[in-house]
Amino acid sequence: MEGVLHLKVPASTANLGVGFDSIGMALNKYLVITAKRNDQQRWRFKHLGPNVDDLPNDETHYIYQIAQRVASRFDITLPCLDIEMRSDIPMARGLGSSASALVAALYIANHFGALQLSKYELLQLATEFEGHPDNVAPTIYGGLVVGYFDPETGDTDISYIDVPKVDVVITVPSYELKTTEARQALPSTMTHQQAVRSSAISNTMISALIQHNYTLAGKMMEQDQLHEPYRQSLIPEFAEIKQLARSSHAYATVISGAGPTVLTLVHQAYSGELVRTLRSYFPACTSEIVTINESGIVTEIVYPAS
Ligand code: HSE
């Protein structure tokens, strides 16, 4: 029996400075979805509350589009569904809202299409659709995930490291920044020397994180050469937030995903004070402490009482 599918899909922060398209961490903000079969001839969407209220109600909906893409990949027909959703993940802010929707769509197609896709297969599909695993992998698995999507083989390989024992502070600007726009700001080539340098910085950052050496990890995180130098002009608050965070003993301040959210890793003793400072300097932004999600997506199937 199909029942009603409930999904709790976490947000994520990608890149962590020097892990462009490869490192991501899940955060405890959620897209929450209920999906059930209807007896209509079409899918119906109900959006509750902020962050989802502008989404379409018809078949242009991203979740519908992705679910149908999965259905055609496996040559199945999905039943028409009623989807109810709410979200505390702001859209187009660099917190993985579209990756959360993508993962939700895959789980919906898997459930109502009776596809029996494993978590591994769902990750492969999610990364293929997204092009990189840095948001979808932590959204599915939780925690801090490092991954590589090989565009030639289509394989995605991932590895985990312990989540850092630090507080995470996010500063979310009031404006949106589309990932496509933020990606257009990037150069298409770099020199071998620059690539060697970036690789050394990233490797050192990961090793330092594994050793819970947050001072060194933070020092490396702030030396990105692959995206932040090209994107920071799109986020006018970035440089000042970084400066203020440094004065509050932060380990590192980076652009969350493609931005415009700015993410700071800071010792637990200083996070509250940092948030209060950021709120006073940037009243138009939302600054808050957000905890790291370690469970990944949570699914529940509820059967009607007979
Ligand atoms: N790694 C991606 C980027 C994350 O920075 O563009 C957003 O999709």
From TrEMBL:
Keyword ATP-binding set for record: yes
PROSITE patterns named among the record's database cross-references: GHMP_KINASES_ATP (PS00627)
Cell compartment(s), UniProt: Cytoplasm
Secreted recorded as keyword: no
UniProt GO MF annotations: kinase activity
Alphabetical list of SUPFAM superfamilies matching this protein: GHMP Kinase, C-terminal domain, Ribosomal protein S5 domain 2-like
Catalytic activity reported: L-homoserine + ATP = O-phospho-L-homoserine + ADP + H(+)
Domain GHMP kinase N-terminal: 62-143
Stretches assigned to the GHMP kinase C-terminal domain: 205-283
Protein name per Swiss-Prot or TrEMBL: Homoserine kinase
Species in which this protein is naturally found: Staphylococcus auricularis
Lineage: Bacteria, Bacillati, Bacillota, Bacilli, Bacillales
